[in-house]
Queue: 4 jobs
Job 1
Amino acid sequence: MLTSLSFMDRANGLIITGPTGVGKTYLGCALGMEAIRQEYSVRYMRTSDLIERLTLARADGSYRSLMANLRRLDLLILDDFGLSPVSVSSSRELLEIIDARKLVSFSLIWTDQG
């Protein structure tokens, strides 16, 4: 059962796919709220917003700090993953986040248009 958050205990990722309007974002947020109730640290971000924040962080010198914050989270929820084309540099940054989280606790949910 997903609400047990056992995927987090095993440091696994979770991918929620399906057509528009079936509730992928709702389910991801509900799991995030349950994680907060269980005292996990959680951040929800649209993938496009994360890419924009990474770009700005590189420009203003706060990239390392942002990456450290993302690495420390117990659960990172990325919504609308793969909805828009991503540049090569942005895809490398996303991979860097995924790799960095894998070393700590890989709990990651992303939703996409299956």
Job 2
Amino acid sequence: MKKKILIHAPNLSTPGGKQTYFASLLDHFTSDIDFFFYGAQGKKEGKFKVLTRLFSDFWKFHKKLKENKYDLVHLNPSMNMKSFFRDSIFALICRINGTKMTIFWHGWQWEFEKKGYTADSPLFPRYIW
């Protein structure tokens, strides 16, 4: 039986490393793959719009998990402050819904890591479950 997997990523039609990576894999997946696209979708946004869209993304993600029974969610954040805290909320939503997840960190910002946000730091488990 094929696994049902949700990949959390920016829209594949917008330019970027994650998008190019996942787009190149589309023909090679053997599981039932679905995407949840987050972010501005290539549009410019003011601060208020960013905030309202972010909460909208969290709500839509929660609804998608509730409406579909995924075997796994793949989160793919960059190791920087914005992605760390944003995707910690997405991880919490997975946990609240009882959905297994895997987190693949990439795009390391060494200055952010030096602030103590590493897997062996006591701060890390408080944000990532």
Job 3
Amino acid sequence: MTRASDIMHPGAECVGEHETLAAAARIMRERDVGALPICGERQKLLGIVTDRDIVLKCVAEGRDPAQVTAGELAQGRPMTVEADEDAEQVLRMMEQYRVRRLPVISHPEHQIVGMISEADIARGLPQARLAEFVSAVCAEEPPRSTEVQEPLAG
């Protein structure tokens, strides 16, 4: 059985929750990536920031990326997968929630150990399955939330 740890990029670099979006953008440029995990103390995953987030949630709103912290964009609990999760389950999750990147965590520490991207998926899939995956993730309907919603107290 192929596991998440078999297809992930190990050792994803985090941007600290108190680091600025400008610092996050520099890390993205240096690493040639479009997303970074946002981590708190002891590398605990708090969220993900993308280059698109920086543009739409900061710059386009007239905010200064040198003043806004990555932690300000970390909302809710990010969708994650455990390192020993079956790769087919990872695919189904990415398709269902239309996410292009998925942090891989160790359990129970909830520390990030890697990231799975569309490129990682593409390397290991037969062409027909890859087409199915891309169609599902890139569908034109509005995206579903990638955050776990807590039930309302009632």
Job 4
Amino acid sequence: MKTTRALALLATTLLTTALASATGPIGTAATTSPSTVLAAGTSLRLTVAHGETPSSGTPRTVTLECPPYGGTATTHPDPVTACRLVDSVNGDLNRLDVDPGVCTDLYDPYTVTASGTYRGHPLSFRHTYGNHCVLLRTTGAVFDF
């Protein structure tokens, strides 16, 4: 009898957990359906600044839009390659390592930022690279502007 109650309680708990994760908190509807997330594109504001902060020197800024937005507002010089690279790491720009070649040890920092959405999800990124060579070898076309 105790085993039957325990199994019933476990089944109820698992079902409730599965429903909550699929629809959001109990009593609320999910705000984004899987088809909406897949249909959502990527829209990012990217900056490159020569220095240790995003506002160092005269920061350069571009907009990168990836399908399905169509890129009408894209000001990035190579949006196709940049979008492919962002997609290759599922929007986790910390995982970019495009060309891990050799660069000098000269410290001449560049700080980059990215903010916006990746496939409908918020994205925020900031990193300072030791020099321009390290920046380009790590991020490739994403921050090459």
